[in-house]
Design brief:
This protein has about 400 residues and is of the alpha+beta class. It has a single domain (about 25-395), classed as Orthogonal Bundle (Cytochrome p450), CATH 1.10.630.10. The chain is about 50% helix and about 15% strand. The protein has helices spanning about 25, 30-40, 55-65, 80-85, 95-110, 110-115, 115-130, 140-155, 165-175, 180-200, 210-220, 225-260, 260-270, 275-285, 315-320, 355-370, and strands spanning about 45, 50-55, 70, 135-140, 290-295, 300, 305, 310-315, 370-380, 390-400. Strand 1 and strand 2 (about 50-55) form a beta hairpin. Helix 7 packs across helix 16 (about 355-370) and helix 9 (about 165-175) crosses helix 12. The longest helix is centred in the middle third of the chain and has 32 residues, at about 225-260. The structure holds protoporphyrin IX containing FE. Protoporphyrin IX containing FE binds near residues 89, 290 and 352. Protoporphyrin IX containing FE (HEM) binds near residues 89, 90, 236, 281 and 315.
């Protein structure tokens, strides 16, 4: 697409040379990048990504409320991945979306999750009590990664040890949502293994009795859903549920460690855990950009987005919008930022958020109850096109409660 020009139906978008998927942008704190874009306007054209970025909270929410104008068939920033994703609710539009989503939410609803709560909380307490016996540990490998991997494998009912394969698969799936840069190119073969496993190799009957994976398999055997849907659902849970949760746990550990006064507030009142999680998701949005395609000419915030354009919904920028959140760069666990967009908004809002909240709330509660104080040592970021994880987080000076 050529650079935008003035039209009679709207105002030309301001432009920025920021590439949302460059090493430079992915390795700095998003706040600075998003602040620059927000200041340029609610819609900014990015030639490097050939995309219109929507950056203000009000405009992002309004666009997410209109999935017909903003199609998810371009949720990824490259056509190959959008093609691969067709058949998932993430990349579907109404009315197809509703059918695909219903199968997922049946199995991931708060009601379906309720039975898992006690087990997840007990596992969280056990993991924290083991980790804090040491003087220091790696907050990523030992906690942020270890916990969701074991919870999600149990959920799907995977009985062998797939731990080492699942992590690179999830990471590759998120890299592939970006444009076809080197990170995405290198991820095709790895993500292909996940697809092959979920669509060809995985045997439903091998999944543990009573697991959600087994229930979805049985639904496909009864003919309630197609056999392909079974593969897609497992694929989506494994791919979508890992890196996002892992990133968020790492972010919570770092933010609470860097703000000891907030950690003490949490220790004094663990009922603040859900509010603390919302604040972590707002301030460090783990998947800060998702794609859409404008299906028609549309004016957003006074700016024209031409039909057919790739759109970048900047959830991370919206979550730091000072017009919505007072002092947005302040980490305040009492803010109760329930209307953050870290889980998206509208028909595509995260279908797994019930599970994510169970996992992270369980872990943060156990952490606040068992740890009096701790420090953050060296923190190493890990570049991914779509998520913002750390490679490692050194947790030191742990004082047990
Ligand atoms: C803290 C953890 C998580 C975060 C921050 C997160 C974030 C998101 C976001 C922002 C979206 C919306 C995408 C869009 O607008 O196009 C989304 C959708 C989705 N998420 Fe999550 N997610 C998390 C955990 C999970 C988990 C644990 C699962 C599965 C078990 C999951 C499954 C899904 C699915 C299936 C969708 C697509 C829903 C649809 O299109 O209808 N997510 N997630």
């Amino acid at each position: 697409m050529s650079a935008p020009s003035s039209t009679t139906t709207g105002i030309t978008a301001p432009q920025s040379d920021i590439d949302l998927f460059s090493d430079e942008v992915l390795s700095v704190n998003d706040d600075a990048v998003f602040a620059q874009l927000r200041e340029l306007g609610p819609v900014v054209y990015l030639p490097a990504n050939d995309a219109y970025a929507i950056t203000h909270y009000g405009e992002v929410r309004a666009a997410l409320s209109d999935p017909v104008t903003f199609s998810s068939k371009a949720v990824a920033f490259n056509p190959q991945m959008n093609e691969i994703l067709s058949g998932t609710s993430l990349a579907a539009d109404p009315p197809e979306h509703g059918k695909l989503r219903a199968i997922l939410t049946d199995n991931l609803s708060p009601r379906a999750m309720r039975g898992m709560k006690d087990d997840i909380n007990a596992s969280a307490r056990q993991l924290v009590s083991e980790l804090i016996q040491q003087d220091s540990f790696d907050g990523m490998a030992d906690m942020a990664v270890a916990f969701p991997v074991s919870v999600v494998l149990d959920l799907i009912g995977v009985q062998g040890d797939l731990r080492e394969r699942i992590l690179p698969w999830g990471e590759a799936a998120f890299n592939l949502l970006g444009p076809l840069n080197e990170r995405a190119q290198a991820s095709f073969p790895v993500a292909g293994e996940l697809f092959k496993w979920t669509h060809e190799e995985m045997q439903g009957a091998d999944l543990a009795e009573g697991s959600i994976g087994r229930a979805i398999f049985e639904a496909s055997e009864r003919g309630d859903i197609s056999p392909e849907s079974f593969g897609y659902i497992v694929h989506q849970i494994l791919a979508a549920g890992m890196d996002t949760t892992i990133t968020t746990i790492g972010n919570a550990l770092v933010l609470l460690g860097q703000h000891p006064e907030q950690f003490q507030k949490l220790r004094e009142d663990v009922s603040l855990v859900p509010s603390a999680l919302a604040e972590v998701l707002r301030l460090r949005t783990p998947a800060p950009v998702f794609g859409r395609r404008a299906t028609t000419d549309v004016v957003v915030g006074g700016t024209l987005i031409p039909a057919g354009s790739q759109v970048a919904m900047c959830y991370g920028a919206a979550n730091m919008d000072p017009q919505k959140f007072e002092n947005p760069d302040v980490f305040d666990i009492t803010r109760n930022a329930v209307d953050h967009i870290g889980f998206g908004y509208g028909i595509h809002s995260c279908a797994g958020q019930g599970l994510a909240k169970l996992e992270i709330n369980g872990l943060l509660t156990a952490w606040a109850q068992q740890v009096e104080d701790y420090r953050i040592g060296a923190v190493v970021p890990r570049l991914n096109n779509f998520t913002r994880p750390y490679e490692s987080i050194e947790i030191t000076d742990i004082r047990r409660a």
